[in-house]
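lol ok so funny story. i was supposed to be doing the assay writeup but got distracted and ended up predicting the structure for this chain instead. priorities right. anyway since i did it might as well share w the group, maybe its usefull for someone
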Amino acid sequence: MFSHISRRLRLPAVTAVALGATMALAGPVGLAHAVPNDTPEPSSASARTTESTATAQAKAATTAWAAGTRSYLVIATPGDTSAVRTAIANNGGSVFASYDAIGVVVAHSASAGFAATMRTVSGVQQVGATRTSDVPADAYNPALPANPTQSPTTLTESNRWDMTQIKADQAWAVTTGSPTVKVGVLDTGVDDQHQDIAPNFNAADSVSCAYGKPDTRAGAWRDIDTHGTHVAGTIAAAKNGKGVIGVAPGVKISSVRIAEQPSGLFYAENTICGFVWAGDHGFKVTNNSYYTDPWQFNCPDNVDQAAIIEGVRRAQAYAEGKGSLQVAAAGNSNYDLANKTTDSESPNDSTPVTRTITNACIDIPTELPGVVTVAAMGNGNVKASYSNFGNGVIDVAAPGGDGSYGVYSTLPGGKYGNKNGTSMASPHVAGVAALLASANPTFTPADLRDRLTSQAGDTACPSDSRCTGTTAKNGFFGDGQVDALKAVGGSTPPPGAYFENLADVAIADNATVESPITVSGRTGNAPATLKVGVDIKHTYIGDLKVDLVAPDGTVYTLHNRTGSGTDNIVQTYTVNASAEVANGVWKLRVNDNAAQDVGKIDAWNLTF
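and the output, tada:
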């Protein structure tokens, strides 16, 4: 069932680029899992010595590592868990971390009967093992991740296909986002010294949550792979003239490393720590491009997995209650999440077995209530071949790359490279959510969710029987592809102020084509500052003449055979159309004046 890809990190391929040279990257065995045929010092601003009460308690109670030690979630009533913690110590366990606000205690024990005994303790609601392998010794004395040597780059910023597809490049002309908006990257860590990340990195709120409790040492947040750094660049790489630009290059990035060493796995206690940290540290948005190990799907009829569901659910609800929206990748197995049948991937920390499952079994965190579930698209309005789907499960879609069209972003050590996956789609949505939060500081997570879906561009099902639903909402794309330009419009624009045509119109050699937009509901004439957004994909724009044709036939030239061999016209023009009646059929007319190069009108819009 999962033959296409097998992983918790939700991407299938990577290519790194440094100083213009291309090289293949092979990650650690526990992290790479790439499809075979697919191609830092910390800020010294804070001494970072302050510990939470829960962390101090956990350290005091933690015993030395011993073979056979397993980790458990002990679920109780939120509030004071002191009685439960005492019971853990009295029944062969030790408290590793305690999250009293949500009633979750992370306990370690080498006793095979620990979980069964604790389930009989008064005040204990659930107990579940979070792994089927031993807790690593690194949990008790974690090694700091490496601080990679940085390579300067000669690469300059350009408009990449994924950013133009969601109109991020047009959004930057309005705003790049607010530095008061903090986005948490819950992942393998982030290279905070990278030239495109350092300007926006927030060390004060970065942490490692590997093993299930906060490690606030400087540098504990760094990348143990390449995945988290790539994700961070897509969200908020600085607009500084070099390398790449993130969707929201003016917001702040915080790293919350939840991947463990050396396995690279993301266990439930790590995710719980990450979500509680996000809520307590004012993250407006978090990105979650992983699933919670070791179970691809957690089923409520299994006592261990039921506790995992409840523990992570409480942590997510806590973060949301503190004002944080969680965005998560849907997964890369080309699997229908609305019609689950089998899981052959789990448990991935010991020996996977094939088991029968139902829709009651959920992918965590992406299927938790309140989490925005993101599917991946390729270049154009197409589903990425690997992306999971599901009518009623997928909320929105975004570029994740597919085949030769990868998502290009930052890699540790000052490098850059391509990756494909829903891991790459999710940070595009997190970036758009950060732009929304920048333009609307009072928005709640519910407001952000609503605006992400209502502003998304409707994307119809292809000729594929697996895609069910309507053009407005279906199993492949949810409510559609997110739109960064609409996100920065501030409050809801007046009805009818924005008109768009997303239908593709092929541009043949030596031919003239038109794409219409019908404007209605306006009064009087068009404004003197009519905005005309143009997205034309063409391999030689020097061939093209592009005109806006008003309803009365008046022609306004936007582009007249300039740019020579440059690819694509992705630009917003301002036209003095005050002499034209607003209502009626406006047309974008494109005339190709030569042979050999062709293209299409991908989309265009009018803003009154």
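Residues 1-7, 13-62, 490-496 have pLDDT under 50 and may be disordered. The first strand starts at residue 13 and ends at 18.
back to the writeup now i swear
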